[in-house]
Amino acid sequence: MRRLFWVGVGVAVTVVVYRKGRQVVRQYLPSSIAERAERAAHDVGERAGSVAQEFRATFAEARARREAELAAALLAEGQADPSVTRAARATGARGAWAAGDPAADIDDDEAELGYSF
Predict the structure, then answer these.
(1) Per-residue pLDDT of the chain (117 residues; tens, 9 = 90+)
(2) Superkingdom, according to UniProt (predicted)?
């Protein structure tokens, strides 16, 4: 909670400094220089935004790839993908699970394996 408070304080201070700084710059600089600086700052902001979006997309792709690798490494040979099993349970393909009786949803080999998904 303390961290969230200090993040909020930092954001508020940044906004105040930014607005006051713009007022000071407009007051003391000629309008052409101020407009050029404002355009340059806007361009930097757009580039930073595009870099952040590209990073987010790359990160999401890498995360999905790694998640698939881990799932493949953890699944037993011949075992169905957990997302397929979840979808089957959600649609009621295995009627006992949809009826609210998870005990009836035990596979024959689960007792031998000692675990289930």
Answers:
(1) 889 899 999 999 999 999 998 888 778 878 788 788 889 999 999 999 999 999 999 999 999 999 988 888 888 777 777 778 888 888 875 554 445 555 555 566 666 666 655
(2) Bacteria
Where do the domains of the chain lie? 2-97
Q: How far is CA 104 from CA 35, 43, 88, 90, 115, in A?
A: 71, 61, 15, 15, 15
Is pTM, for the whole model, over 0.70?
A: no
Report the alpha-carbon distance of residue 84 to residue 87 in Å, rounded: 5
